[in-house]
Amino acid sequence: MAVDDNDEAVIAALRASRSNIVSILRASARMDKGLAAVDARLSLGLESLDAVTEAVAPLQSQAMATKALHARINRAVPPALSLLRSFALVESLQRRLLRLSSRTSSIPRLVDFVECVDRLRETIAAVTAGCEPAVQRLHEAVEFLSRTRATDQLRIHRLRETLVALEQLYEAEVDGLRYDGPLDDALLRLQNDYEAILDLLKHRYIAAHVDGGDDTTDPSPPVLGSELEIEALRRISETLASNDCLDICIDIFVKVRYRRAAKALMRLSPEYLRAYAPEEIDGMEWEGLEAAISLWIHHFEVAVRLVLAAEKRLCRGALGGVMDGAVWPECFAKIADRIMAVFFRFGEGVARSSNEPQKLFKLLDMLDALDRIRPAFISTFDGEAGGDIRARCRELQKLLVHAAARAFWELGLKIEGLQDRAPPPRDGSVPKIVRYAVNYLKCLAGGGYAASMERVLRTEAVWKAGPLAARPDAEEEDLLSDALSNVLEALQRNVEAKRGEYGSRDRVVPHVMAMNAYWYIYMRTRGSELAALVGEETMRRRFKTAAEEAAYSYQEEAWGPLVRLLTATGDVEAFMMGLDENLRRHRSGYCVPDGDLREQIKEAVAKVVVEAYAGFLHANAGVVVEGRAFLPPDAIKRYDHQALPLTSKVLTFMSNRV
């Protein structure tokens, strides 16, 4: 078989590879022999090393023990030295406290004293924190010496006795530093200084408000104490709190500041707050109660805007740094609760007292005062701590709204006659209930009370309807106008009822009374806010027309029979006797207080009587009756009865008798 060139090349390559493999195998055999020789030499070295290790082992153990003892001593000595330095600093600060205590009292001295107390407390805290670790480290060192026998047993025994004594000293000394000695005396001194500074801060500005003349609407309350005094109080508060005296600090603050606030308000002379319990208010004379309510309004504003607002600022400044500001709102609430409770008690007593109509205006004044002071009130008694005071104020407002509504409707009951038992005036003058009601309603409509009364009526209506009632047109309802109109209608019914109480003995006086009453209502309300609310045209149509109708009835009843007597019978003597009788009755029995109404009645009566007499004369000209000639009309006008002209006698009621 023939071999080509490629096959020869492959064979040559295989031969070369075999030669290389043989060379590698021979080299590996030589290396194996070398490794065996090295292994023999290493075995001899390790045997020698084991012998050396056995000889050195005790020395190594002793060195490790010495190193451990050194580490324990290094751990025990620094805490002990630090503890000794702290004890030395405590002694130095105690001596400094004694020196500061012996100096004259002043705010700067007090600040230095507080700083020294704080440093002493911190140092005692360092001693307290450092004693136990130091003793523990010393205990570890003694135990190690005992276990390793690094020294003799006598020294170890003495070390143990010393350690026990040190532990006993630590317990006794630290307790003494914390609860007895100069620190305790200093804290007692601070409590006394704290109370003294608080007692010095008086509401000196209150004298300007004793008479109620000064404005209390200034939004910025007065400041109690200087910046240095407030800073001293703050530092003392924080120091007392950090020394477990927080309860004592709070008790002192609340006691002293309540006493100062109460004394400030007592300078306003609020005897009414002490003289009458709520259940006794109905027994007060109205003039006294009215004056007391006026004082209550002024004193309430002074208490909130000035006294308690200043107390709140002082409370925040003195206690704001204690417990991250969580303490001072509660302290202020304790002071304010006791003071405001007295004002709320009186206000609630007024609101719960009898529903006399005259109380309405003072009740509205109280409501206006609460509305006016509301921003300052919310600002003074904000937050969770003021929640109880705000809730009680809302309750007082509700009571006042109900009381004002009841007082207003009580007027309607009186007018309707349910409680008005007074008989009608005998002389036909204006009934007292008419005068009272008109003046009352005019004051309500035009005395600055309209808006308040409207709000009361609207609030009362909403409360009665309930929260679920739909009142889309509530804002458009003119509740006050409707209420006033209803009272005036009741007043008209009252007049008509009295008109029927006269009986049949005198048929003239009921018309005189009605004429006087309606004319009084119309004239006293014309052009007033009351007429504007109810409607000028409504008032004219209702009361001027009624007065004119009553005047016509009066004229018909008083002078009609006399005129008919003259025209029907021509009996002049009977006419003159009737004229005299009418003159006497008008002079002594009837009263028309209004001058304008008197003039109108005079003209109307004179016209009727004189025209009737003139007509009679014209029909009987020149006739003589029983030998007497008729008097001319002018003589009738000038007719003198006991030296009084006819016009005066006919209108004797012109005399301004009420």
Automatic annotation (TrEMBL):
Q: What is the recorded name of this protein?
A: Exocyst subunit Exo70 family protein
Is Protein transport set as a keyword in this record? yes
Q: Which GO terms describe its molecular function?
A: phosphatidylinositol-4,5-bisphosphate binding
The protein's matches in InterPro entries, at most eight in alphabetical order, are given as: Cullin_repeat-like_dom_sf, Exo70, Exo70_C
> What functional role does this protein have?
Component of the exocyst complex.
Concerning PANTHER family, the annotation shows: EXOCYST COMPLEX COMPONENT EXO70I, EXOCYST COMPLEX PROTEIN EXO70
- Keyword Protein transport assigned to the entry: answer is yes
- Keywords, ordered alphabetically: Exocytosis, Protein transport, Transport
Q: Which GO terms describe its cellular component?
A: exocyst
Write out the similarity annotation.
Answer: Belongs to the EXO70 family.
Q: Which residues form the Exocyst complex subunit Exo70 C-terminal domain?
A: 296-626
A single Gene Ontology biological process assigned to it is:
protein transport
